[in-house]
């Protein structure tokens, strides 16, 4: 017999503004003073306080629902935030108070309990949307780079044994809908309607509550790994290396050889360490956009389609197979990606470890200078990933090497399904 939840069984609909009682605290997105900007209140413990659509933890909100439904979590649990404050201070930076610069995360998300202390005293349940901590990471490829003399142990950034000291920040998406619509050059109404419909009507407030302009979408967020001096990130006089990496679980974690994701990620970390050891900093942004934001089911369907097509897996048909299954080649929308770089106060990137033109264009168009682009070294590309890399280069991705013509592209073949 499951435990009965102690909270009222009465369902409170929030699809229309409350006619009585005080209005929720306004959010003035882009205001320089956090108290003027207002806190993001997405918790469900006091529904009258909510000033956004959606709730915390992205897709994990559904697991929270199961925990509440099964009686293992009290729905009115309020987080005890003792000792959870950031280990390192990031910002505020001038970019935080330009409404259009950051529209997909809350720049005050890490320091909410500090800047909104007076609201906590009044009983508001405000949860951080960003958490910052420190860690040591260790990857076999980095140990190999030390053994081969490409990386040095300095005892501070890179410890003996290959432990790399990092500061890491987990960031939940917080979308300012008017700013997001502007970024995509569509109306806010069009954006709200598509979000409402494509989530199966999950958030009615998207279409009924135009007074609520901020949405916490049920998607994965991102993690930032910082190597070296944090102060150097926003200092244009210090060198900065950046890799923006979109999640690829199959390669990143399991070492699949069909793509270059993990080798590229590790190369990015290596460049970050070198840059940090020169007195600068390195930043890895890890975005939860599995399979070009199409998801792993679509990705594996595409793998099969690629390897079973006539003539086998070929570089000249690489993008086409994705489009057949998904309807598009890519759904990552790099337009929102530079927000995290502006949150970090970045104005110039000395070494951008990426071949992607979409990422390059999004970053430079958002006002950040990129000095040098770094492609993955040839000897780090797995044999079966030749199809991906040659197709990308032929499609115009950045490279310092040769680009194949249509005939040679058809000759680049991957392994069959074995
Ligand atoms: Zn991959």
TrEMBL record:
Gene Ontology molecular-function annotations: GTP binding; GTP cyclohydrolase II activity
Domain GTP cyclohydrolase II, chain residue ranges per copy: 227-374
Annotated keywords: GTP-binding, Hydrolase, Nucleotide-binding
Entry-linked Gene3D superfamilies: GTP cyclohydrolase II
Listed EC numbers: 3.5.4.25
Cross-referenced Pfam families: GTP_CH_N, GTP_cyclohydro2
GTP cyclohydrolase N-terminal domain residues: 10-198
GO BP term, pick one: riboflavin biosynthetic process
SUPFAM superfamilies for this protein: RibA-like
InterPro entries: GTP_CH_N, GTP_cyclohydro_II, RibA, RibA-like_sf
UniProt keyword Nucleotide-binding, yes or no: yes
Top EC category: hydrolase
PANTHER family in the cross-refs: PTHR47259, URACIL-REGULATED PROTEIN 1 (PTHR47259:SF2)
Protein name per its UniProtKB record: GTP cyclohydrolase II
Species of origin: Hassallia byssoidea VB512170
Lineage, opening ranks: Bacteria, Bacillati, Cyanobacteriota, Cyanophyceae, Nostocales
């Amino acid at each position: 017999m499951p435990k009965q939840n102690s909270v009222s069984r009465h369902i409170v609909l929030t699809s229309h503004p409350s006619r009585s009682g005080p209005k929720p605290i306004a959010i003035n997105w882009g205001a320089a003073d956090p108290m003027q900007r207002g806190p993001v209140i997405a918790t469900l413990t006091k529904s009258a306080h909510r000033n956004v659509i959606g709730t915390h933890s992205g897709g994990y909100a559904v697991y929270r629902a199961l925990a509440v439904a099964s009686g293992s979590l009290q729905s009115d649990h309020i987080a005890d935030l003792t000792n959870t404050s950031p280990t390192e201070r990031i910002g505020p930076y001038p970019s935080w108070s330009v409404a259009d610069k950051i529209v997909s995360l809350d720049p005050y998300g890490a320091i909410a309990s500090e800047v909104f202390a007076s609201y906590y005293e009044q009983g508001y349940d405000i949860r951080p949307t960003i958490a910052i901590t420190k860690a040591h990471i260790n990857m076999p490829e980095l140990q190999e780079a030390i053994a081969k003399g490409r990386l040095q142990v300095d005892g501070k950034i890179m410890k003996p044994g290959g432990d790399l000291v990092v500061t890491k920040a987990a960031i939940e998406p917080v979308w300012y809908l008017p700013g997001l619509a502007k970024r995509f050059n569509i109306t806010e109404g069009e954006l709200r309607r598509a979000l409402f419909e494509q989530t199966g009507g999950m958030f009615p407030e998207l279409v009924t509550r135009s007074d609520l302009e901020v949405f916490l979408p049920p998607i994965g967020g991102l993690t930032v790994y910082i190597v070296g001096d944090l102060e150097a990130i926003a200092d244009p006089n210090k060198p900065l290396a950046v890799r923006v990496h979109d999640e690829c679980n199959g390669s990143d974690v399991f070492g699949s050889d069909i793509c270059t994701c993990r080798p590229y990620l590790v190369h990015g970390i290596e460049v970050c360490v070198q840059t940090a050891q020169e007195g600068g900093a390195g930043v890895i942004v890890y975005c939860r956009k599995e399979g070009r934001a199409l998801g792993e089911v679509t990705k594996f369907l595409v793998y099969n389609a690629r390897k079973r097509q006539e003539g086998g897996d070929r570089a000249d048909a690489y993008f086409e197979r994705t489009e057949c299954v998904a309807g598009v080649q890519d759904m990552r929308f790099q337009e929102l990606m530079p927000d995290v770089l502006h949150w970090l106060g970045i104005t110039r990137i000395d070494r951008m470890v990426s071949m992607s033109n979409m990422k390059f264009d999004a970053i430079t168009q958002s006002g950040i200078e990129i000095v040098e682009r770094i492609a993955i070294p040839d000897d780090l590309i797995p044999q079966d990933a030749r199809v991906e890399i040659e197709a990308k280069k032929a499609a115009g991705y950045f490279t310092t090497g040769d680009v194949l013509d249509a005939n040679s592209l058809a000759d680049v073949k991957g392994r069959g399904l074995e």
